[in-house]
Design goal:
CATH class: Alpha Beta
Radius of gyration: 11 Å
Oligomer: single chain
Number of strands: 4
CATH architecture: 2-Layer Sandwich
Number of domains: 1
CATH topology: Alpha-Beta Plaits
Helix content: 10-25%
Strand content: 25-35%
Number of helices: 2
Order of helices and strands: EHEEHE
Length: 64
């Protein structure tokens, strides 16, 4: 499965909760906003989605 992690920057409030929550190193913090650096490391725990007050993060799982 390939994981696609998307951040909707129109919704993102820059609170950093997703970045602080991610224990897999998928996200990094750059210029007051999260960026996706390693989507393949995603553990699919969904904690970043649950912690995001703006609901700005989505995950997509593709089966091959």
């Amino acid at each position: 499965m390939i994981v696609e992690v998307k951040i909707d920057y129109d919704k993102c409030q820059g609170c950093g909760e997703c970045y602080k929550t991610c224990r897999y190193g998928v996200l990094e913090w750059l210029d007051d906003q999260p960026i996706v650096v390693s989507p393949n490391k995603c553990g699919k725990c969904l904690e970043c989605i649950e912690k995001c007050p703006a609901k700005a993060i989505t995950l997509k799982l593709d089966k091959y």
